[in-house]
Amino acid sequence: MTDKKILNYFDLPGDDYELSPYGSGHINVTYLVMGKNNKFVLQKINDRIFPDVDGLMRNVSSVCDFNTEQVKKQGGDVKRCLSLIRAKDGASYVKTDEGYFRIYNFIENTVAINMPLSAEHFGEGGKCFARFAKNLASFDASTLIDVIPHFHDTVRRVENLEKSAAKNTAGRLSEVEELYDFVLSRKQSAGLILSGIEKGLIPLRVTHNDTKFNNLLFDVQTKKPVSVIDLDTVMKGSMLYDFGDAVRTGCNSADEDEADLTKVKFLGDYYDAFENAYLGVFGDGITAEEKRLLGFSSMLMTYECGARFLTDYLDGDVYFAVHKPKHNLLRAKTQFKLVEEMEKVFGAMNGYSEAN
What we know:
This protein is 40% helix and 13% strand. The chain is of the alpha+beta class. Strands 1, 2, 3, 4, 5 and 6 form a 6-stranded antiparallel sheet that branches.
């Protein structure tokens, strides 16, 4: 447990503060800072996952500030924007013998919800993610540090899988050959978005890169989203990454590690609600090529995630935390089944090609 003396480094209003564990995140250690009149959120940053803490915090700070300024210009409530509490020396974080720490504002009367309650609710999430993207559309994405290089380089993810298959470190290749062939059979489309960025067909934008539904905060009463949170993976990339990853997690009828694949269905009504809501907010700000690839991005992000799970399974489960036998194998199978379900709606992944 972190000593509350850490609070002395930050420019907080005077109060009688206490710390208590908060949230269910697996990367950083999070505490609720509770005073008689004030609340904040303290985090110890995981510098093993994010070794360039200074680069990470420059990303987070600049994106938070820019988003808040846009909301202010629009007449919105800036108290419902994620923002950093500065250290007494003006920095966005502090380093002590115990590690790296930052403090966020506490957004009152909000709650995180793991999965959408309905298709309409998922659409509300789409609006919130779209507002975030639209607010940052004029931000110079090239100034952001790649805190996790090649994060959505699907070509590299497939290459990593091929290397792991060749090494077969855990001796598991023989039991996953069908899944491995599934990945290789769609390999030719893995670089479509990256190629589009390189050729200028797809603009480089600020991307969140972890658009799970529980990375939104919802109003306790209305259950409508009010803010995008968890900006540690904010980097430059394509809005298609964020759109596709949100669909991957929100349009699956089953759990991510469901063993009974007959339960894995693509929720088309959820997708339609999300796409319509997203385009309703940001549609005039995205290109025709981005619109063309919305369905494809949903398949690609699901395919990429499955490839990562399968790679870790072949490596002996060294990256993702596992909680039961063959956990990463179950996760990979679920992702690939979801890809198959999506292909029934959007067409074969390999059927997409670059715009002429």
